[in-house]
């Protein structure tokens, strides 16, 4: 069974940092791009970041709203993808989903981890 | 990148059909055949229902179908069932390795 399990969410003050993790299982991790997508309370889905699967030269892309503050990375030895979030703002409050990227669609999705940015 | 436009809500009685639109621009929906649709029951993980405009992943009932005309994509759910009540989001590749989601549509089964 393909499974994605996120962790690392929690409460953080504005300006603070948080690192999300996503453990993947049930598929050949190195064959896929991986992404993060978020959903703010009462709002729609927003694509956040993507990382390719070429270890010799990972390529990353970000939504304009997080570029320069968030960093996506992956560890093939741990079948995991990470999202380092710095300079957090209240508007970053959301459920963050880890997703497997099949280039033209996101499938499957993890259950999500809640990040709350508040003082 | 602006979100794709979807109607906030749609509804139908069991057995009826409902169609949800997803309007973008020539830079996203109209420019690529990379439109996908996701079903989201609150509190659960979103689920891929349609990819590359018209393709259905294995396990998704053939009651779900997708189409596109110009800058507008559509998802049709035929033979509505109670379990189809959920939020639905479209997504499109928007060039330069970016993706954009729709605003979301809440489908209610009357």
Main attributes?
heterodimer, A: 119 residues, mainly beta, seven-stranded mixed sheet, B: 110 residues, three-stranded antiparallel sheet, 0% helix
Structure description:
The complex is a heterodimer of chains A (119) and B (110). Chain A is mostly beta strands and 119 residues long. Chain A contains no helices and eleven strands. In chain A, strands 2, 4, 5, 6, 9, 10 and 11 form a seven-stranded mixed β-sheet that branches. In chain A, strands 1-3-8-7 form a four-stranded antiparallel β-sheet, with no helix packed on it. Chain A is globular. Chain B is mainly β. The model of chain B has no long low-confidence stretch (mean pLDDT 96). In chain B, strands 1, 3, 4, 7, 8 and 9 form a six-stranded mixed β-sheet that branches. Chain B has a three-stranded antiparallel β-sheet with strand order 2-6-5, with no helix packed on it. At the A-B interface, strand 5 and strand 10 of A face strand 3, strand 7 and strand 8 of B.
In short:
Chain A is mainly beta.
The two chains with the largest interface, and their residue counts, are: A-B, 22 and 26 residues
Query: Low-confidence spans of chain B: pLDDT under 50, at least 5 residues?
Result: none
Q: How much of the residues of chain A is beta strand, in percent?
A: over 45%
Query: Any low-confidence stretches of chain A, pLDDT <50, length ≥5?
Result: none
Look at the structure and give the mean pLDDT of chain A: 96
> How much helix is in the residues of chain B?
under 10%
Q: Which structural class do the helices and strands of chain A define?
A: mainly beta
User: Got a strand count of chain B?
Assistant: 9
| Global morphology of chain B | globular
User: Which percent range fits the helix content of chain A?
Assistant: under 10%
Succession of helices and strands of chain A: EEEEEEEEEEE
Please summarize the sheet with the most strands of chain A.
Answer: 7 strands, mixed
Order of helices and strands of chain B: EEEEEEEEE
Mean pLDDT of chain B: 96
The multimeric state of the shown protein is heterodimer
* Rg calc of chain B: 13 Å
Radius of gyration of chain A: 13 Å
Count the helices of chain B. How many? 0
Mind summarizing the main beta sheet of chain B?
A: 6 strands, mixed
Distance between the termini of chain A: 40 Å
Structural class of chain B: mainly beta
């Amino acid at each position: 069974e393909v499974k994605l399990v996120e962790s690392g969410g929690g409460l953080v003050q504005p300006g603070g940092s948080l690192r999300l993790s996503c453990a993947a299982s049930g598929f050949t991790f190195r064959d896929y791009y991986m992404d993060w997508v978020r959903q703010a309370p009462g709002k729609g889905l927003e694509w956040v970041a993507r990382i390719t699967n070429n270890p010799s030269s990972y390529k990353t892309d970000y939504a304009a709203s997080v570029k320069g503050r968030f960093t996506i990375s992956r560890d093939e030895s741990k079948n995991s993808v990470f999202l380092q979030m710095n300079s957090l703002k209240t508007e970053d409050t959301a459920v963050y989903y880890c997703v497997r990227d099949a280039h033209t669609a996101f499938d499957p999705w993890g259950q999500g981890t809640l990040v709350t940015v508040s003082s | 990148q602006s979100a794709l436009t979807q109607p906030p809500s749609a509804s139908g009685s069991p057995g009826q059909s409902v169609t949800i639109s997803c309007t973008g621009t020539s830079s996203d929906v109209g420019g690529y055949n990379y439109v996908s649709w996701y079903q989201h029951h609150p509190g659960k993980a979103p689920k891929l229902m349609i990819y590359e405009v018209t393709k259905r992943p294995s396990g998704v009932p053939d009651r779900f179908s997708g189409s596109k005309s110009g800058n507008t994509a559509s998802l049709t759910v035929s033979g509505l069932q109670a379990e189809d009540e959920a939020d639905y989001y479209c997504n499109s590749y928007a060039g330069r390795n970016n993706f954009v989601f729709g605003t979301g549509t809440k489908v209610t089964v009357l």
